[in-house]
């Protein structure tokens, strides 16, 4: 059944909308908790959560009931021309959590649009279309969001509405930051920023956009404090900071509610998406009022912040806070990280096991080198599926296995997934020698 659907998918959707698992693509037909079932009746433990989007997992009663209550009113959509109670409530909560005084929240349907809005606010405020972005980043698929995406396979267009200068990524296995200590890395990054500002910009740059931990780029993270150090230099030039928290927000990193908090910095704008809707299309940007309000024309988004998605968003956010899922992410993430390091940390194909909370990446290399090994990564990825575990792939070289399970993951589920991962890695490692 899935075979036929794959052929139909390939015949009618764009060739670049690709699916995982080759000819054996999965159609998910039901889900509960952290488990999903495919069209062949096979059940999987889900460690990727629809790319970190099903943040609470599947069929969460509180979210379902909140959405059903809204649907029962008959108002699926009204328009921001009318007051939307759930939108206001959610905006109040996000503004409070943002750490930004007198914050304004603008809701969109996707992370891409949220980043577009952040570009609009900052370029408008600074009267400059110059943007600093980070190599190996991902910020979305619109014209401008692609232009600030520093990852070749996701940034197809060379034509760009913004003028972008690139900062070094946090990759510590290769490139200019290879082998540096945290302090050296931060110094080198600040030096790099100064050099970029002096050489490839006219100085009046609008903003730096950065992911606190690069998601699509393979969960690459620079040392704590780096964004704070960069911000000091940015402040000398009046350059704004946009934190793209699409993957790192809502407590996923375990140590903090927002990823930027590990950097000792307060961004001017924060973009969010994915997990906040737990599957409903909900995203947005929260920022300083003077930036957000200053857009020169009246504007709205037809579906942005609609009654159904914001009903879901309130239920999701309340759930995260009421159940302290940040602490859960920390605890279960530690089980995974420690377990992986102990069991396969010295496997030849494992170049690095890194992560924070429930955002864990394993980078695969050719044994004894830092040369990326996408084939070994694929082998582990396929073995995981065979063992009943869904994980993700990513990284500039396609050699990073990515885990971003729902934040509701239990200790037992963490151990169950860990065992499958360890078996898969050992199998691939044995073949590499
Ligand atoms: N920013 C980051 C960090 C992302 O990971 C993504 C999606 N992968 C986006 C922006 C774009 O979000 P969306 O797909 O909702 O447009």
UniProtKB/TrEMBL annotation:
Gene3D superfamilies: Aspartate Aminotransferase, domain 1 (3.90.1150.10), Type I PLP-dependent aspartate aminotransferase-like (Major domain) (3.40.640.10). Keywords: Aminotransferase, Pyridoxal phosphate, Transferase. CDD domains: OAT_like. It holds the Pfam family Aminotran_3. Its cofactor is pyridoxal 5'-phosphate. Its EC number is 2.6.1.44. The keyword Glycoprotein does not apply. It comes from the Bacteria. One of its GO terms (molecular function) is pyridoxal phosphate binding. Homotetramer. Belongs to the class-III pyridoxal-phosphate-dependent aminotransferase family. This is alanine--glyoxylate transaminase.
């Amino acid at each position: 059944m899935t075979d036929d659907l794959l052929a139909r998918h390939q015949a009618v959707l764009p060739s670049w909308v690709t699916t995982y698992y080759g000819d054996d693509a999965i159609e998910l037909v039901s889900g509960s908790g952290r488990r999903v079932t495919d069209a062949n009746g096979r059940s999987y433990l889900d460690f990727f959560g629809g790319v970190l989007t099903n943040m609470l997992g599947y069929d969460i009663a509180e979210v379902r009931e909140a959405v059903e209550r809204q649907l029962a009113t008959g108002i699926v959509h009204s328009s921001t021309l009318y007051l939307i109670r759930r939108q206001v409530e959610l905006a109040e909560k996000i503004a409070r959590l943002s750490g930004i005084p007198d914050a304004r929240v603008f809701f969109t349907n996707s992370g891409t649009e949220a980043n577009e809005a952040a570009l609009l606010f900052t370029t408008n405020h600074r009267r400059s279309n110059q943007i600093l972005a980070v190599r190996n980043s991902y910020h979305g698929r619109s014209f401008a969001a692609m232009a600030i995406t520093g990852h070749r396979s996701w940034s197809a267009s060379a034509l760009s509405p913004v003028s972008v200068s690139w900062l070094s990524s946090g990759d510590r296995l290769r490139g200019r930051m290879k082998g540096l200590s945290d302090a050296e890395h931060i110094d080198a990054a600040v030096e790099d920023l100064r050099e970029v500002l002096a050489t490839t910009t006219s100085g009046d740059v609008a903003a730096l956009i950065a992911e606190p931990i690069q998601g699509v780029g393979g969960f690459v993270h620079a040392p704590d404090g780096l964004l704070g150090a960069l911000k000091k230099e940015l402040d000398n030039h009046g350059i704004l900071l946009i934190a793209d928290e699409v993957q790192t927000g809502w407590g996923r990193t375990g140590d903090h509610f927002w990823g930027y908090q590990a950097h000792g910095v307060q961004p001017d704008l924060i973009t969010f998406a994915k997990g906040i809707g737990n599957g409903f299309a909900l995203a947005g940007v929260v920022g300083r009022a003077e930036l957000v309000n200053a857009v020169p024309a009246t504007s709205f988004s037809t579906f942005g912040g609609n009654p159904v998605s914001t009903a879901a968003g309130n239920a999701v956010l309340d759930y995260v806070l009421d159940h302290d899922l940040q602490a859960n992410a920390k605890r279960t993430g530690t089980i995974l990280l420690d377990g992986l390091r102990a069991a396969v940390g010295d496997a030849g194909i494992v170049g690095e096991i890194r992560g924070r909370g429930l955002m864990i990446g394993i980078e695969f290399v050719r044994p004894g080198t830092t040369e990326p090994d996408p084939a070994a990564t694929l082998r582990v990825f396929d073995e995981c599926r065979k063992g009943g575990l869904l994980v993700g792939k990513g990284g500039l070289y396609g050699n990073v296995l990515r885990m971003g399970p729902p934040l509701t993951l239990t200790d037992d589920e963490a151990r169950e997934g860990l065992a499958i991962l360890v078996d898969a890695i050992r199998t691939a490692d044995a073949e590499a020698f």
